[in-house]
Amino acid sequence: MLFDITPKNDVKDLFGREKEINLLKNSIKEPLTVIYGIRRTGKTSLLKSVLNSLETPYIIIDIRELFNESGSIRENEVSIKILNELKKNVKLLQKLKFLFNDMISRINGIEINNFKMNIDTSRRYKLNNILELINEIAFKTSSIFILAVDEAQYLKYGGRRYSNILAWAYDSLKNLHIIITGSEIGMLDDFIDIENPESPLFGRMLNDIKLDHFDRETSYNFLKKGFRELKIRVNDNDINSAVNTLDGIPGWLTYYGYNRAIRKIDNSGSINNVIEYSRKLIDLEIGKLISNSRDRYIAILEAIASGLNNWSSIKSYVAAKTGYISGTILNNHLTKLLKYGFIKKSEDKYSFEDPLLKLRFMSGGK
Ligand SMILES: Nc1ncnc2c1ncn2[C@@H]1O[C@H](COP(=O)(O)OP(=O)(O)OP(=O)(O)O)[C@@H](O)[C@H]1O
Ligand SMILES: [Mg+2]
Questions:
Q1: Which of 186, 217, 247, 266 is 20 to 30 A off residue 256, Cα-Cα?
Q2: In the CATH hierarchy, which fold is given to the domain comprising 286-362?
Q3: pLDDT of residue 70 exceeding 90
Q4: Torsion angle of the four alpha carbons 125, 127, 131, 136, in this order, in degrees rounded to the nearest 10
């Protein structure tokens, strides 16, 4: 069902992404693939749907879930996450002849009995040992194993540790192919840092896949198809008003369709629900980022939302609202908002990536 609000896990439910599906299927034959896309464009759905459609063994781990209060990512937690995902898939992996019983039980702390894997979580597991083992099993069974790392930009908080491991895996573990995704595009680029000679991953080849917003026509067709699937008639004016407000972000379109078709809420109520819901999510997502200088960030976002799109007009607005701000500080704040994918810059003009983010700050940021 198109209006299912959880990530899709079947390619037949993935709308308008034929090109990206094929790109990903081909790319999986290479060691490293990166999927970029701002929030709610369907990265997790693309990953899950494509990987489910193949015979290749895989696991997906979400690094966002491991990002802890102390602002770091612990290696042992990444390792245990991988082991837990393997555990969930023991049966399936064995069906795929990915026979790892003997080998995986070589790791101290792991036992396998009758498809059941026990992990002693009081032990420490080194990530490279686990990856090495997965690679070895894949090699011995003449297969490729795919490790998909969702929201991988958070690995940056582990310093160079994770990019070192990634570079080592790229060079040495030929049967382990890695896919990483990220919604904070600048942060993910900082993590990969492929063009920097000092970066561990410097010079490696990677395939990248970019998930854009749907264009107007695709958004319209997405909603039409979703309503048709549920045998619900919705007039074109309503669909167009939703497309105008939600501007091609698949996650928002899905949530609108869900409100309209499943929860049976009227058109303006459904659009309002999306706006309300987005407001909560946006506040949560942006809140952490701007907490150290909240008033200034909010003034910047308000300025851009009100249409002040060049550097000096933003600076004047922020100064009028919050007092003097130096050019350097303004630049730091703008760079951070750009890196985290909240705003974009084109020909020296700033604007929002997501129309609902703009709406959020048009009415004032409090
Ligand atoms: N191409 C698509 N076809 C159908 N539904 C989609 C599509 N893309 C996204 N969705 C729906 O939109 C919502 C967001 O998708 P998903 O969680 O995959 O995006 P994401 O980019 O991983 O988001 P986040 O950045 O929040 O992790 C989900 O409800 C999903 O079902
Ligand atoms: Mg996701």
A1: 186
A2: Arc Repressor Mutant, subunit A (1.10.10)
A3: no
A4: -50
Which fold is adopted by the domain 11-210? Answer: Rossmann fold (3.40.50)
Which atom of ligand 1 lies nearest, measured to the CA of 214? Answer: 1
**Cβ(182) to ligand 1 under 6 A?**
no
Q: CATH topology of 11-210 equal to that of 286-362? A: no
Q: What is the mean pLDDT of residues 112-124?
A: 80
Is the pLDDT at 38 greater than 80? The verdict is yes
Supply the pTM of this predicted model: 0.92
**Which atom of ligand 1 approaches the CA of 15 most closely?**
3
Question: How confident is the model over 6-23, as pLDDT tens digits?
Answer: 999 999 999 999 999 999
**Six-digit token pair at 297?**
């960030």
Is 143 or 329 the better-scoring residue by pLDDT? 329
Smallest-distance ligand from the CA of 229? 1
Q: What is the pLDDT of residues 78-110, one digit of tens each?
A: 999 999 998 888 776 766 656 666 667 677 777
Alpha carbon of 237 to ligand 2 centroid (Å): 31
Report the separation in Å between the CA atom of 150 and the middle of ligand 2, taken as the mean of its atom positions. 7
Tell me what the pLDDT averaged over the chain comes to. Answer: 91
CA quadruple 344, 203, 196, 28: dihedral positive or negative? positive
* Ligand with smallest separation from the Cα of 218: 1
Domain residue spans in the chain? 11-210, 216-265, 286-362
Nearest C-alpha neighbor of 358 from the set 249, 263, 234, 223: 249
Regarding the beta carbon of 15 and ligand 1, being less than 6 Å apart is answered yes
Q: State which of 254, 281, 353, 356 you would mutate to test the pocket of ligand 1, scoring each by most atoms of that ligand within 8 A of its C-beta.
A: 254
